[in-house]
Amino acid sequence: MRSAIILAGGNSTRFGSDKALYELNGKIMIRHVAQKLTETSDKIIAVAKDEAQGEIIMAKVPEIDEITYDPIKNYGPVAGIFAGLKTINKGKAIVSGCDMPYIKPELTNYLYNKTENYDAAVIKNKKGYIEFLPTAIKIKPGRKATKHALKQGDRRILNILNRLKVNYIPINKIEKIDPELKTFQDINKIKDINQPTC
Asked: Of 47, 110, 151, 161, which is least surrounded by CB within 10 A?
């Protein structure tokens, strides 16, 4: 089974408002992400920061099958990933941010396939650093690694990956699928939405 987890629990401090709920071309941003992910995923889960946000998402994003919540407020993506993985029984999942409206279905399909014989498929940029979102992760090992991190009070994504067998994919292979790397366009401020990818 292929699932998708959309992380929507961030504070969006630099953005100035809730990024997940920001309206872009007549739809809130998280819906753009969900619609792209439905092309390659059987189930879509959103991890919201609270019930108020979750209710709006469920009302405005029919593509989302289930809402869950960050188990520890303001803990960061590790808690959100664990919350999402807890709702899935088997298979693998794509983990995406709510601020990735340009995510390519061809890329998510590629990442799903690259988990064969691995626990996760993670992209590295040209400097060798991890581009964690989007990533593909198998449910059981991913849940175990994130649960361990929460118990240890560890917020670092890298330490989760160190507990997994990871297929690291160089960005030049991703450029064949997404030549302009639009998937990774940073949306930290409202003005970034219409900016070209560097």
From this structure: 151
